[in-house]
Amino acid sequence: MEVIGADQDDGASPLLERLAEGDPSALEMLYDKFAPQLYGYALGMLGRPEAAEDGLQELFLNLARSRGKLGHVRSVRAYLFVMLRNAIWRRLRRNAAGEFSVDPAAIFQRPGPPGLPEGAAADIESALARLPAEQKEVILLKVYQDMTFPEIADVTGVSANTATSRYRYALDKLRALLPPDLLQER
Amino acid sequence: MEELLRKLKIQSPPPGARERVLAAARAELQQAAERRDWLDRLWESRAFWRSAAAVVLVCLVAIFVAPAGATPGNAAQVAADPIVVAAAKELAASLGDGPVLERRLIAQLSPTEAPARNHEFFSHDLLRSTQ
After folding, report:
1. Test the A interface: residue of B2, B3, B21, B30 with most A CBs within 10 Å
2. What is the pLDDT of residues A78-104, one digit of tens each?
3. What are phi and psi of B78, to 5 degrees?
4. Which domain holds residue A137?
5. What one-character DSSP code corresponds to residue A145?
6. Beta-carbon neighbour count of residue B14 at 10 Å?
7. Which residues pair with residue A108 across a beta bridge?
8. Are the beta carbons of B10 and A109 separated by less than 8 Å?
9. How many structural domains is chain A composed of?
């Protein structure tokens, strides 16, 4: 798997080297450095805290299992997102058979930021929950993980143009789904 | 629109998640290390390679000597060579077929007083030369 060029290196490669040598503290440092963003992505996609934590746990188990095969990784962050994405999509496919129900009220911190009307977070969560998963994913990676479109393309396995298109479609749908007064608020 | 979305912050991992996730990962790391140690020991074990070589050799011999020629009747004519007996036991044990296969292998690998085929001698000598 080729994930993002060397110029995107996030300085975490030594942690993978330590993990490859079997150093458990490398796992802890990887968790502390990346878990909040990874969890946010998983929570946004899966909608339930337990499911997001399970996805995160699956990611770290896979890391421990494949620790000897991490030499080719150039961007640890992108690699972790790809691994987590695989776990998330396996869960989403299982969820198509009704494994768990998505609770759109669990994604954002409460209370919301000052300046936003009460209920804005719930409205946005509800609108996000109605997006196709591929579009919601691009919103989560672009807006909440600050990824560029080429980075999103690497993580999601599509071209940068496709990622850009998905983002535009997603924003259009959100505009259509959100209450007009919320859009005028900003 | 993007500005509106950015105002909201996604929740952080719940308390306790760090310990749960890391405990599972550390256990997996430990198991992986133990599996690796076991494989390393096996790989470095001289007995393992001797056994593997003996099994391969006996298999090759059994394939080439195979069903024609020697029979239990033939084996009865000459006492079985201890090398053949040991190899047959090892192969039979590894295949889990027990005494029947063992007897058959001994019969097939033991030379008769008047061997019908040269390769039976060849297999016997080959086995002896590897010891």
Report:
1. B21
2. 999 999 999 999 988 887 765 555 555
3. -130, 140
4. 113-179
5. S
6. 14
7. B10
8. yes
9. 2
